[in-house]
Amino acid sequence: MRAHSLLISSLRGIRGERPPVWFMRQAGRYLPEYRAVREKHSMLDVIRTPELAAQVTLQPLDRFELDGAIIFADILNPLIGMGIELDFVEGEGPRIGNPIQQRDDISRLVVPDPYENTGYTLEAIKSVVSALTPRGIPLLGFAGAPFTLAWYALAESGKSAQGKRIKELIYNDPQGWRELMEKLVEMVSTYLIAQAEAGVSALQLFDSWVGVCSPQMYRTEVLPYLEQVVTQVRASTSVPIVYFPLGGLGLADLVSELPVDAVSVDWRVSLPTVDAAYHHRFPLQGNLDPVILFAPLDTVRRETARILHEGAQITKPHIMNLGHGILPHTPISAVAEVVKTVRAFRYREES
Ligand code: 1CP
Predict the structure, then answer these.
(1) Which of 25, 140, 285, 288 is surrounded by the fewest CB atoms within 10 Å?
(2) DSSP 125-182
(3) What does the pLDDT read at residue 156?
(4) Residue 349 DSSP symbol
């Protein structure tokens, strides 16, 4: 049974008395209880051990009165079953052992069965759902969007943030690009559907690198594959789907064509401005700058209030979140302050 909640009704377009609040990366290094688990276990071990993944997922819920949880995993671990070697290197982040360099590397990729490839996450989801349903808190599942997964499979890094490798593949080997995207579409769709079957109440697609695309590239090389993912997922489950095009403000007009339920917004734009760019179509999630959480608490309170008032001006519901994930070393008191400020807010005070 799925929890009926402020978060899910807001994602479905029904505004409650206040916005729901949850945070991307709400489980993570800023929590001492997370660091304690990670001292004993590697990132991949935590993800692949359902008891540990469930434990870490629930940690922020025991500290803060959040309106949602997100299953602990990464966008990259599902690539392992496709034949991509992945490791998380301490203090550095993900590293791909055998990045795609030529057409053969694409041809040898397989589309894994999600139950075989990521059964551990599906088990963790079941366990978290049984813990959270009595508390009325919904669990989100997620996946990387095909473009962003291709980015990592090609070993693009922050240093080549223009996306030279991915764009060269698109321009120089269109057939190879199509084959790669088709395999990623299949992997992502079946994985999201399996998460819905395991009991998540909503799904989020992270497109963290799509901001490097021109609208033209996005229209022809990215959007059609995203549409395939959303259409396939929709055909087998009715849970709401959230899309997060980080840095994708220039793509808003095209994103507004996607049949998703809600869009997550980074901090670079005000919610009313982006609402207009999306033609008032979507509930919007976001968009407090994660760095504001390092400011004095009255600044945190004031900036949270500013986002709440901007969120009250959009056409569809607002879901309070950050514009990107919580950063390591974020003060816990600032996270608590945001939650407190949101929970005390009421829309009727707006009029
Ligand atoms: O313990 C550690 O140091 C590991 C840090 C960490 C964590 C906590 C990584 C490595 N991944 C995660 C978990 C994670 N990643 C979640 C869990 C649920 C939650 O939000 O609480 C989610 C949803 C992700 C998604 C993810 N992973 C994205 C999309 C969102 C985003 O940040 O843009 C991306 C790009 C990744 C790749 C990744 N994994 C880890 C790092 C440091 C990165 C980013 C590397 C880069 O910038 O290229």
Answers:
(1) 25
(2) HHHHHHHHGGGT--EEEEEE-HHHHHHHHTT--GGGTTTHHHHHHHHH-HHHHHHHHH
(3) 87
(4) G
Q: For residue 321, say if its preceding peptide bond is cis, omega within 30 degrees of 0.
A: no
CA 342 to chain centroid, in Å, comes to 21
Choosing from 2, 29, 178, 301, which is the catalytic residue?
Answer: 29
* Contact (CB, 8 A) for 287 and 266: yes
Stretches in the chain below the pLDDT threshold 50? 1, 3, 351
What is each CA distance from 100 to 96, 178, 261, in whole angstroms? Answer: 9, 14, 33
CA of 305 to the centre of ligand 1 (A): 27
This prediction has a pTM of 0.96
Q: Whose CA is nearest to atom 47 of ligand 1?
A: 158
Active site (annotated) includes residue 38: yes
pLDDT in tens, 79-103: 999 999 999 998 889 999 999 999 9
Distances (CA, A) of 266 to 44, 237, 285: 27, 27, 9
Q: What is the DSSP letter of 91?
A: T
Distance CA 224, CA 181 (A): 10
pLDDT for 1 equals 47
Query: In this structure, are residues 204 and 242 in contact, taking their beta carbons and an 8 Å threshold?
Result: yes
Q: Which pLDDT tens digit goes with each residue over 104-137?
A: 999 999 999 999 999 999 999 999 999 999 999 9
